[in-house]
């Protein structure tokens, strides 16, 4: 099944807030994202405080810390600088878990062949990026997103800019491709 919210990106250096579809468009199936360790759920952002599915995900995966982040010029201090940092290709030593409550934006992830896949998240989308995957984030042309950030234990916001081939999280991520014949899709 192809997911209309994910596609291979073109090589253009135009405004990163644009969709950057290839010509012709090349959509990416959910199972391809799952093979990369990217998980996705569609939830109800209007009632996140009482959402049993969100509660189950948090309990099952051990996400015991949560905060909210508004990314827009009016609400984020040093907006331009932070957006530039978010868009710099990097990894984390832990999973990156983001639940879009309002607005929209793009997570870009590298596939096994080092191609960029653009994932368009909108209100209701919960995405988990595995530790060690090269990725970046930017807003789309709406210039606004409200995200819930989830963490296991104390929150860690440390980014390690590419190259990071010797970072333990990156090595473990790469090793997971050689060990697994297939990855079960835990999300939907």
From TrEMBL:
Chief location of this protein within or outside the cell: membrane
Keyword terms of this UniProt record: Amino-acid biosynthesis, Cytoplasm, Dioxygenase, Iron, Metal-binding, Methionine biosynthesis, Nickel, Nucleus, Oxidoreductase
The UniProt record lists the keyword Zinc: no
Catalysed conversion reaction: 1,2-dihydroxy-5-(methylsulfanyl)pent-1-en-3-one + O2 = 4-methylsulfanyl-2-oxobutanoate + formate + 2 H(+); 1,2-dihydroxy-5-(methylsulfanyl)pent-1-en-3-one + O2 = 3-(methylsulfanyl)propanoate + CO + formate + 2 H(+)
Pathway: Amino-acid biosynthesis; L-methionine biosynthesis via salvage pathway; L-methionine from S-methyl-5-thio-alpha-D-ribose 1-phosphate: step 5/6
Binding site for Fe(2+): 90, 92, 96, 135
Localisation: Cell membrane; Cytoplasm; Nucleus
Protein origin, superkingdom: Eukaryota
InterPro entries from the UniProt entry: ARD (IPR004313), ARD_euk (IPR027496), RmlC-like_jellyroll (IPR014710), RmlC_Cupin_sf (IPR011051)
Gene Ontology BP, a term: L-methionine salvage from methylthioadenosine
Co-factor(s): Fe(2+); Ni(2+)
Record text on cofactor binding: Binds either 1 Fe or Ni cation per monomer. Iron-binding promotes an acireductone dioxygenase reaction producing 2-keto-4-methylthiobutyrate, while nickel-binding promotes an acireductone dioxygenase reaction producing 3-(methylsulfanyl)propanoate.
Binding site for Ni(2+): 90, 92, 96, 135
EC number: 1.13.11.54, 1.13.11.53
CDD domains listed in its UniProt record: cupin_ARD
Membrane-spanning residues: none
Function: Catalyzes 2 different reactions between oxygen and the acireductone 1,2-dihydroxy-3-keto-5-methylthiopentene (DHK-MTPene) depending upon the metal bound in the active site. Fe-containing acireductone dioxygenase (Fe-ARD) produces formate and 2-keto-4-methylthiobutyrate (KMTB), the alpha-ketoacid precursor of methionine in the methionine recycle pathway. Ni-containing acireductone dioxygenase (Ni-ARD) produces methylthiopropionate, carbon monoxide and formate, and does not lie on the methionine recycle pathway.
Entry protein name: Acireductone dioxygenase
Organism: Prunus avium (Cherry)
